[in-house]
Model the fold of this input.
Amino acid sequence: MFPLTRFTSLDRAGRRSATAAQGLRFSGIYPRVDLYYHFAGERLEYDLTLEPGARLADVRIAVNQKWKLHGLGQQPVAWQSTASGARYPVQVHYVRCGADTCFSASGYDPRLPLVIDPVISYASYFGSSGRDIVWAMQADPAGNLYVLGQLGGFGLTTTTPAPSGFLSTNGPTFLAKFSPAGQLLYAVLPDLSYFSPLRLAVDSSGDVYLTGTSIYGQTLDNPAWIQKYTNCLLIKINAAGTDLIYETYLPSTPTALLPDGNGNLYLAGAFAVQPPAGAFRSASGVYAGQDSALLLLSADGTHSLSSTFLEYPADNVAALAIDAASGDVIVAGSSSATGPRQAGTLQQYNAGTDMFRSLDTGATWAPTGRDVAGAAKFQDRSVPRRLWAVSGTALAVSNDFGASWQGGLTLPASGSILTVANVPDLLFLASTVGLYRSKDAGATWSPSLGHYSGMGLYAVDPQNPDNLFATDGPGGWFSRDGGQSRYSVGQGSVVNFPAVNITLVAVAGNPTTFLIAGTALNGQPILVWFRYGSGLLLGGIPVSKPVADPSTPGRVLAISTANTLIESKDGGATYAQVGPLPAAARPGYTLGLAIDPHQPNTIYSYGLLFFRSTDGGRTWTALSAAPQPGTSTGNQLLVNPLNSSELLFTRTMTSDAFAARFTSDLTTRVFSTYLGGSADETISGMAMGTDGTLYITGHTFSTDFQTAYGSTSAIQSPGSDLFVMRLSGDGAEIAASAFFGGSQNDYPVFLALDNAGNLLFTGYTTSPDYPLTAGALRTQLSSTQDASFFTVLDPNLNLLFSTFLTLGNGSDFFTGALPIPDGRVWLAATAGSTNLPVTPNAVSAQPGGPANAYVMLLDWQH
Done:
């Protein structure tokens, strides 16, 4: 018999030293058994690690009654790990051995290490028989957890009475409240048919605010501020979960909400509001006032106390914070605005750009064209090196392939520019109010065609500019007199081709349709029109991303649904397969094709990754330094008609992060600044320390973000990396900034501060080398799919703890991490795994459906 392990009382000096050392470890208390115990607040906790070959039956524990060993009253959480890092739970139970405590286990393999760790104080599944989703989580000052989600089935047990008309047993939404002891305090289902929850907030008294969308015309039982029908709802529930305080419609769905400490609620979003006189910005900058705004709703939900529009309609707020000392409210998010922020701040102008230039056929790239940032770009088909830029009704021109721009031209309406090959200075403007023509390079305009309902894409015949083609509803049309009259080509998607080949006119496209228009050798107009999803076969092959060869009439390249490059030499009448595209250029990743006008066999595929082929598409080379594209629209790769080595890539305007601070009455802007590099940044969370310091996290694609903000660690991947920055409360100084990430993409989704000022955030990653620390719950990814992580930094952004959260046999997405006063952390997830750790007092030890809510109370400080 090996000696009995005893926990005895510690004197004050011993306790202080143990705390300073973050715990005490005893190796070999039994053969191949290590013991580690530590304080977490007032709790004494322990871990036991058994190496392969250790005997679990030999381990005994006795506790001096002067100290309570946390975890002995509950079933311990235990697991084993394989050599590959795969972790699976082991059922371990406490059993009495006379006056001492022993262990029993089922499914324990003595050939593998075993960890017995009450670091997980509470863990439970919660949900219905269907596929449930956790949308949001919050905690109150007492450490209670609130989880908002959507049910995909039946069987959820509610714990509170159901007042008439509000709380029921069959609603599609659930709100659950758990105590730090792991007790389910309530689970309610608001009786709102077709309600989809989105966001959640909890005030200091425990009252709960939840927002979501519903069908138009939903009857409200206790309407407040806005009683007219929209599809955006705000609901306030009392702390006990038994009563509805108010419900009201909102102008639109908020992107962030935060109680102000007095029962009022700040809401941010694209709202059609009417700010009062004296607001920071009272006039909307967009049609119908659906502008980015911030408002403060009264405690009873009956009226807006104050509101203001933000600086720009493109300001998308993702997070809010309140300075407890001054009451000021801080907003943070991302913005594609190109206008200036407050003078003298960290970054007055958006550092992003929507145009990149390469002088070496795509090997390297540099941002350019910031003076026309945000404008749509069009290449002139007639004048080499000429480009056009349209922003609203403003028109600018470049005659040096985007190196410089001249403005001052005005369009009769906003729209898209069409140029015609071999006809210099002839422009068409396709707008929502009709088609216009200019014969003097945009100096003057005249109507060419009135607006027709359903009018879509246009093309112009370079041989005869009076021949116009367009898509229109279910078919298409052409005009032979410049649009004065038009002729339908029928309701079918394709006009039958004549026996002879055609001379290609143009290829036009957008995300849902494209057309190929031309004139046959016999003079008859030809139009091919295709709508994605219609099942149309062009030349017998479903295709997308068509592009016309500017140097070879009739030649069209496109991509088949099998990710194969196909080629037509007769304007689309027939196609031939060329060869497969690279696997990384698969459908959904490829945004377009481009053909070198000097060397028709040089083809570019561009999207999330760029590739070049010099043999007509048979083999491909990756361009690893290519810029990140924007959204699926607005991306195009242009080849200089006079120099094949020079490329331009244009995209939709990138979003920089931004932060702004306003007084509590929303009348005064205290500061406003951009925070970003030349590519996209997105804000995921913000928190304010007790000293007024702001902490902001998000992800960036900008390789120059580090240079701008003095990051303490280098960006590690060509994709997205997580960043954290510490910003002074007045917005004047970046005190610290750091990147975190591995060789692939890393995204944070949540940020919170604990009482010690440590930063806690969760997110997801595809990087197997994401930074981890000793004591991680899991150290390897089980697949190439996204994996959730939990990371803790100290106030100086030094790494304290980091772990993967892939603890089960399925896909689990963790929504956030919320600290409670004693230092432990609540985690919540939409869990697809069926074998996640659970504790004996769990609401449910097993999932009830293919995906359920899962909550865990974790003590990472061990």
Notes: DSSP finds two helices and 65 strands in the chain. The first helix runs from residue 12 to 20.
